[in-house]
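Dear colleagues,

As part of the handover before I leave the project, I'm documenting each prediction I ran so the next person doesn't have to rerun anything. This entry is a single chain, and its sequence is reproduced below.
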Amino acid sequence: MTNLPPRLSTGISGLDAVLDGGLVPNRTYMVRGESGAGKTIAGYHFLTAGRENDEDVLFISFEESNAELRANAGTLGFDLSELPILDLSPSPDAFLDDEAYTMLSPSEVEGKSTATELRDAIDEHDPDRVVIDPLSQLGRLSSDEYQFRRLVSSLLSYLKRSGATTLFTSQPSSGGTDETLAYLCDGSISLSRSDWGRSVRIEKFRGSDSQTGPHAMRIDGGHGMRVFPRLVPGSHHREFTIEPLSSGIDDLDALLGGGIERGSITLVSGPSGVGKSTTGAAFARATAERGERAAVYLFEESKRSFRHRSESVGIPIDDLVDSGNLRVDAVEPLSLSTDEFAQRVRAEVEANDTKFVLIDGTAGYQLSLTDERSDIRRELHALARYLKNMGVTVVLTEEVQQVTGAFHASDNHVSYLADNILFIRYIEVRGEIRKAVGVLKKRFGGFEPTLRSFEIGRDGITVGEPLDELRGILTGTPTWNEAE
């Protein structure tokens, strides 16, 4: 038996954070879920982490044979060749010879009772960590609920007395086996999967706090199981100075009362093609040119398209991308959960001291990211608040459906997130389509309460003089007073 740390790592990326640092040693934990949820994979991670920490481990299998376990683990990158495995899976010989297969009873299977095999393996290996997969198998082989509860309680007590931390798996059943195990364990981790993806939830964790779920989860061959904890904005903070930041366009800065403040959230609103993304790109470039790192997340176009378009309108970004001051990332539709995306942004901010984030397309954010929760605007809210707490300046672009007509700052009800609202509109002047830009809201300081002309050309964005002679843009019926 080796000396154990105050907390044991699960070995699963992100899950220790959800568990407030990991598992409490010398306790029993249930991993529950339907077939294919990832329960056995969690066991691979748990024991592999123990081996890496020079702990003694033991895998007890009631379903898969030794060879099957090692082969299946290998497809996910786990090498179990040196891992002690007690194989209690049903033998083909038992079926062929019509043998009875009972657990923890005086009857014998292949010459030795299962109870004896369990005890001998535990005594021989003196494990710090044990995985039993699945412990619910005992319920199907016990005569009644009382016997099952007694058998499981005795086994778990023996493991605790031996100093082991035990992780066992269970599948839901109509007989109540799963609920009995949930009652007997010290902690319960529930794995699930749906059309929206995989998730994990901590249902019970005796003696410790844990983060409220569900939390997104992913299983793949390169990493095994990964958990993406929900972002808790209040747990993150970084000292910063609130100061105005330039867009790189003098007249736009004037309209904004000197620019947008560090650590603020700005919503750029307007119909399709009006220049929202280009405006966001201008802020990103200005940040990178100051020597600070900026990150752009695209939900409605590719990186190639964004870089080409920025170049064509006088906002070149390739040099800044090459220098490392600017990151451009296109999010593939339905490839990430909201939790995964939030953790991707968090990693960018904390690893690279990123100072500016552009989320280009809030509607695309809601359509492109998967989540079982009905209103993922709450997740956007959490991400925006996290960035704000970290002193990151945020620009969100929002497409409104109406090209002309009554004014709406937001169709997706995200304007409440914004400290600043910059809107760009199409207007008709003498039969010609033009654009106008204005500021609807600015939390930190004043702004120019006028509308200005807005143009995008080969030389970039041009914000013109105030449109003093134009009336009624926000009413949807603009008029031009030529007498003035």
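The longest strand covers residues 432-442. The radius of gyration is 30 Å.

All the best with the project,
I.
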